[in-house]
Amino acid sequence: MTVIFDGAASGLLLFLISVGLSVTLGLMNFVNLAHGAFAMLGGYVCVVLLNRFGVPFLAAVPLAALACAAAGVLLERTLYRRLYGASHLDQVLFSIGLVFMSISTANYFFGAQQQPLQLPAMLSGQFNLPGLDIGVYRLFLIVVGLGIAFALQWMVSGTRFGAQLRACVDNPRAARGLGINVERVFVLTFALGSGLAGLGGALGVEMLGLDPGFPVKYIVYFLIVVAVGGSGNIMGSLIASLILGICDVAGKYYVPQIGAFVIYAVMVLILIFRPQGLFGRSAAK
User: What CATH number has the domain bearing residue 218?
Assistant: First the structure.
């Protein structure tokens, strides 16, 4: 039970970071491999606010998300929107270039070492139940992750903005004809994806660590979540993150010699039977 609980916490942290990529890739059809750089930015903003300015953790985390959302707006208006009509290869090459620039920038300002982060007392420690050790911070991650997952699903499928976003992606010309400001919808969506990455990065410093290699180290995990869950599907990303998180923790606990390989094996098995992902739309549809 403890392995399942820790795996669920790990999976929901993975969801928090990767769901922004699912939004930009699946809903905007834009391949942003620099997504991990926004998560790293959120982590560094959170660490600086905590360690240098004494900002409380529960205030530093949303401020880090807002900083990443602002960075996303800036980059979308100046760089990304120029590539909306470009090929996926151009988008990949451009975003990889941003990744290496972000790594060099982080290394210049913060060095190559891991960044320390001290959790507040209210989120530290654990309490024990029969057969289950519950870490307070991991429980906090589960609650936050589930709350954001259901809020995002409601926003995409049950709000006017979600309908406008789907219309802008499917047919921008028709959307403009209906009076929808396509550029504003895209910039808000990009800000949402970047802010979610920053939120996940800030929350993940304690579990994942933080150093300049973060964007390269974890981008494969984010892509696995999107591929397994189905591109653009919020609930698919949530379920995929839970499956992969539990399998990853269980593999590292029970078979540490090959533990890091388990998550890739699970991905391969799922994609053999569901090439479009667990909740992705098939090509025939």
Answer: 1.10.3470
Using an 8 Å Cβ cutoff, are 23 and 189 in contact? yes
Phi and psi, residue 133, nearest 5°: -105, 120
| Residues recorded for the chain | 285
Q: Is 131 part of a structural domain of the chain?
A: no
- pLDDT band of 201, cuts 50, 70, 90: very high
Q: pLDDT tens digits, residue range 155-198? A: 888 888 888 887 887 788 888 888 888 888 888 988 998 999 99
pTM of structure: 0.90
pLDDT at 282 over 70: no
Domain span at 24: 2-115+139-273
Q: What phi-psi label fits residue 275: left (phi over 0), alpha (psi between -120 and 50 degrees) or beta?
A: alpha
- Beta-strand ranges (E) seen in 117-243 are 126-129, 132-135
Grouping H, G, I as helix, E, B as strand and the rest as coil, residue 21 is helix
